[in-house]
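Let's do one together. I've listed all components of the complex below, 372 residues spread over two lines.
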Amino acid sequence: MERDLAQTKAAAALSFSGPASGNPDADASADAVRALIETFLAGGDRAEDAFTSLVGLFRDRVVSIVAAMLGDTDPAEDVAQEVFLKVHANLSQFRFESRFDAWLCRIATRTAVDHTRRFWPRRRVALEGLPEPEREALLDGANNAGAAGRPDDPESRILAAERARMVRRALREVPASFRAAVVLKDLAELSYEEIGRALGCPLGTVESRIHRGRAILRKKLERILRP
Amino acid sequence: MTTTACRMIRSRLSAYRDGALAPGAARDVAAHLEGCDGCREELAGIDVVARLVAGAGVAAPPGFEERLRARLRGRGLTEKAWARRGRVARRASLAAAAVLVAVLAGFGPRLVRDTRTATPAITDDQNLNLVLFGSPDIDDTGDTP
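Okay, and this is what the predicted structure of the assembly comes out as:
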């Protein structure tokens, strides 16, 4: 399929919802992602550019998932690259029977879990005794979570980054199965059905894991907010 | 006061918040919430946590794609290999090379083998966890081995 890569990339940047969603923008983006995959699989001179465009579309999402699963941004890039290496090696097996981003998120989550099993020492992150500025940043986020905010304000950006770091640290104390469910729901924005497929468990288990994961995370965060 | 009804409702608040309940179940939860301050507070707490996680994303560092390309090249995918990467072309060249080697070596067709099978295939419906990680699921025992 011949298609201008810049156009497909711009279209795909709109959103990552699956095909036949009824949303014209979402359907266009799904088509654009499919076009990139097909260009890559067709081989030839444009294959590398197509794969790079695909990576460009999803890199932040993959790095975010991995960082949330690891509780740390330091190794996140390396693990995120492992994710894309696996995608590169297996993309020809993707049959478009599910959303590409859901497939990608499954790989990202499992790669992160695999990484923690191999490399995490038996240690617990100390959440107590955080410096007051960090605690205030998180408290501010808890009180204003989801508020529009002022994204261009440097102070807001710093606070948001600090808040995100605290949340990732707290996530690290949540057991892996619950953490994966919460991250796939709240960060990756997958449906319960997609999470069930990603984690290999039925819908009832997905619901339970998300709920218990959020409850555990809430307690961890409250330990920070009310030491 | 937390009642048995509250405990049942609270176990479903995340799914209610996510719009993942069946219509009848969602109506039951909504009806309970109307008259229960405690469960409304619980729902608000869940909502805050979900939003905090949603805001915990991080951007990939600059140069991410370039470093990935370098790693791909390091695995043998040179620019020339990229250009030859078409599935049909690769299959044909592998088959031709295998046949040629087998014929020249006199070992017959038993050496003809599609080397692509060396990479585990991940289909949409296949249990990706087993293929990639050798375990069917993320267990509940935590992260440490």
